[in-house]
Amino acid sequence: MAKSQQTFNKIEKEKKRLKKREEKRKKKEERKASNSDSPEFAYVDQYGNLTDTPPDPDQKVEVDAESIEIGVPKKEDMPEEDPQREGKVSFFDHSKGFGFILDTQTQEKYFVHISGTLEDIDENDKVSFELERGMKGMNAVKVKKI
Hints:
By secondary structure, this protein is α+β, with helices and mostly antiparallel strands.
């Protein structure tokens, strides 16, 4: 005669699982019965905080859907700025062929490679240049002395 495959431990686990399921069902029914007439809502106030009170309709701001821009504007839509910039060579290593230019307007440093220069430059030279996106940021190109 074969022995039953269900052990005492399996039976107890099954009882606990059924008991939890029944308790969950009862809680769900209680929530439905108590909140059937008033659903719960969360509102966002003008500061971005969640509240349970609805916002004042007098303070509502109308937003024109046409004025909302999604994504980055195209290059032709962006305002045109002067591509020619001026700066001072703060460091340049002729043996390695690179250096840095300090922009006089924004005080930012831009990397410059020897291949991006139109004439020989040295440290402390005043130069004009254009910016181009490189692998690690903006690079100065078309560099020439002023």
